[in-house]
Amino acid sequence: MQHDPIRPRDPLPVPAQDDKPQVPAAEFIQTYFQRLGLPLPVTQPACSRALLNTLQYAHVTRIPYENLDILDGKPLPMTCDEQYQKMVLHRRGGYCFELNGIYAALLQAIGYQVKTCMGRFLRGESTIPMRRHRVILATCSEGTFICDAGVGQQAPRHPLLLAPDLIQEQYGETYQVTREPFFGYVIQTRHKGSWRPMYSFTEEEQLYVNFLMPSYYCEHAPDSFFNKGMMLSIKTHDGRKTIDGNLFRIFCGDDVSETVISEPEQLIALLDESFNLEKPSLEQARTFLAAGSVRR
Question: For residue 230, is it within any domain?
């Protein structure tokens, strides 16, 4: 019996550098540092743990977590260049797919070895949730670090060293990275004397196209809380400022103050002064206030 000759297998696509900014690297770094309120580098910054700490602290205290485009009916920018236009040049924020997308591009432009991963946000969940969190791993000579500027709740201001079971303390908060058979790496936070999981991730490298579908779900699904009301958060040295629905809160240590936002002009001033955001129009502010309250 004769068999057809075996033909060569079609080659698989060759992995290439993922989405990157369309502007020159030096310009990208300079304008990004300006948005972060950092001194402009005169030469290419050297990759180090200290620089990672500086960048992430500036990121989470200068560029807020926010969902205003979703409430305004605007598709979210998912390419690096679109995210650069929105968050760096137009003084906006975003959520994890956006914030950690552009943050990863900055780290890569500086020279870190960067991998983006997919995670499950576990805090407050009683069942296993879908993967809908973007995580960054950045490597330099001092180790591999979990970099994340895309969590609106309590979260590290400095990257965590990817070292399972090591206790890591910063700004009065305690973290630990554990390794679980199903979840992979799990970020744990110390809360009232016990550990609670924040999110998990596995190490398979993700391209930006892998985040399109979960982001679309977060934007449009009826059971997504991202499209139910305003969600904003920006960290401070000893706490954070948030807007949840029409409530503006300031967390400082164990103290929390709360103000009801009742007028669009009040919201516009808060977004500019407390969240470092470009002012929306009066009509947009009315839309945001009318969206209702988030239920999480």
Answer: yes
Cα separation, 29 vs 186, in Å, equals: 31
Cα distances (angstroms) measured from residue 21 to each of 78, 89, 231: 12, 13, 27
In a domain, 15, yes or no: no
What's the rounded Cα separation, in Å, for the pair 104 and 151? Answer: 15
Number of domains in the chain: 1
Q: Is residue 157 part of a domain?
A: yes
Place of tokens 């744990």: 188
Residue 213: half-sphere exposure toward Cβ, Cα within 13 Å = 6
Q: What is the DSSP string of 186-242?
A: EEEEEETTEEEEEEEE------GGGGHHHHHHHHH-TT-GGGSS-EEEEEETTEEEE
Q: What is the pLDDT of residues 224-248, one digit of tens each?
A: 999 999 999 999 999 999 999 999 9
Average pLDDT, the chain: 93
Helix/strand/coil for 259: strand
Cα(159)–Cα(266) distance, integer angstroms: 34
pLDDT given at position 165: 96
Query: What pLDDT does residue 9 have?
Result: 73
Domain encompassing residue 179:
25-290
* Strand pairing class (113-121; 65-66): unpaired
CB environment 140-175: b (16+ within 10 A), e (fewer): beeebbbbbbbbbebbbbbbbebeeeeebeeeeeeb
> Is 14 within the bounds of a domain?
no
Determine the average pLDDT of the residues in 81-103.
97
Neighbours of 33 (CB within 10 A): 19
Give CA–CA dist 285/107, Å, rounded: 33
Instruction: Look up the CATH number of the domain holding residue 126.
Output: 3.30.2140.20
